[in-house]
Amino acid sequence: MNIIERFKNVNSQTVWDLMDQLSMEDDIFSVRPYQLTPLLEDDTYVYIHDMNMVIVYIDRHIQGQSVLADEELFNNESPLYFTEREHWISPIYKLQLANHGIRQVLRKLGMKEPSIYGVCLTNVSIINKADMLEIWNWLDVTMIDEVHVKNDLKVSENYDTFGGSLFKSYMSHRYFASWKLDAKYDHVVENAPITQMKELEVNEQEEININVPDAGNLKGVQIIKPVRNPSQSIERLIGLENIKRRLSELKIFTQYNNLLCSLGAKPHHISLHSVFYGNPGTGKSTVGRLFASLLLEAGMLSKGHVVFVNGRQAFVGRLFGDEESAVESIISLAEGGVLFIDEAYTLNGNHSDDPGKLVLPMLMQVMADERRRDLAIIIAGYEKPLQNLLALNPGLDSRFAQTNRYHFPDYIPQELFQIAMERINEYGYTITEEAKEKLMTMITDDYKHRDPDTFGNGRYVMNCMEDIFFHHGNRCMKENIDNLEGLHNIELSDILPVQQKKESLMIKTKREIGFRT
């Protein structure tokens, strides 16, 4: 009898004995995973035997409550269970997400999909259990209510078994899953599939809490923790299509490497050291942070944090010899993550005895050290000075593979306008059509007259929007607007002062450098 049939035959008294028994059987893999899916974080157990998988989820609430179960969508929201005083997301829905996500990942890995069965244990009493049995059976789930919940259960975690290998493959690649149920695995109401399901909202900018050392008294050094769901954040970046494609390729190749490992084959060594070319405000620092988080998610780095270094300032000290100590300290900080060196060419001073020239050979030595694969070094800055630096130092140039050289182009006016609109949406504002047209015209004119070295790209947009918000806020107070609709509506009169200020500054600048107007 396989484990699915064994779970179908248990009740509230015998289920705990079965779970402990399974953990003692050599050919069955059992584990209590952390965050099996975005909604299954705790109180979850997984059992695998041959091609049979059972997910057991414990839904904890106040003992003795009476609950109304509902697997139906309402206003496109997740199905909810109700008591008189509270409600929560259907545990069956959570199990369905896990079922779907696991199948989706294994399918993309080219692995055979197991038969997946769900078991939900809850300490409450479900009032309409008889009415829900047909739906639960259709979804391959057993619901056992009025269970006295245990705190500890035995698990084996024997990853050498087939089940352990299968589960490890899923956990290593679960970012493949979209966490959106398709029609094939959807919920059922009156035996008819619900075809539309709201995608789970996840905060892709949520930081991952890792232990990173403090920068201490090092000047020009900033440490930033990794974030969750970096792939989603990268996809949402405006423009940068070539960079998105390269990062996607890097991630896919990393997944290929992981698959080789899971099958006992030798993986390829991938150089992570990279060059980011681009003008200010083109997204180099933003992508650097997400790059580190992406490598953490793919298992290429152990921490995924970023140590941002502002060129020369962090490495070159007051006393001769400080450089070696500074490099060692900064490399130590960056182990497990990314060392991001902005304006790296400032280390190569004009004087032959410039202490910055000592730093580059030290960094080259670190990049050449095969034992230091848990580290990626990124040098970033203007394209021409970086190219000149690499041309002058063939040893440094050879440390960066051509495929790891990323060019960040200036944003075009349409992309700058899109950034502005995202800023407006971020604060919940609306904008009139005439104000929108004026904003696009202003951005286009500024782009045409820009100095590429100082324009600022994304930073330019952020500065413009802060000015617009400032004038909008002042106008609202002067007009005594006190309703949210008015306070959140950008009008043409909020854009005009910003444009006039720019035109005035342009005229002044032309006069100062000798032009007649």
Q: How would you explain this protein's 3D organization?
A:
By secondary structure, the protein is an alpha/beta fold. The protein has 18 helices and 19 strands. Strand 10 and strand 11 form a beta hairpin. The termini are far apart.
Write a brief caption for the model.
The chain is of the alpha/beta class. 42% of the residues lie in helices and 15% in strands.
What's the arrangement of secondary structure elements?
Layout: H1 3-8, H2 15-24, E1 29-31, E2 44-49, E3 52-59, E4 66-67, E5 80-82, E6 87-89, H3 91-108, E7 115-122, E8 125-126, H4 129-138, E9 141-144, H5 162-172, E10 188-189, E11 192-193, E12 221-224, H6 230-236, H7 241-262, E13 274-278, H8 284-297, E14 306-310, H9 312-315, H10 322-334, E15 338-342, H11 356-368, E16 376-381, H12 383-392, H13 394-397, E17 405-408, H14 413-426, E18 430-431, H15 433-448, H16 458-478, H17 484-487, E19 489-490, H18 492-512
Parallel strand pairs: 3-7, 4-8, 7-9, 13-16, 13-17, 14-15, 15-16, 18-19
Antiparallel strand pairs: 1-2, 2-3, 5-6, 10-11, 12-14
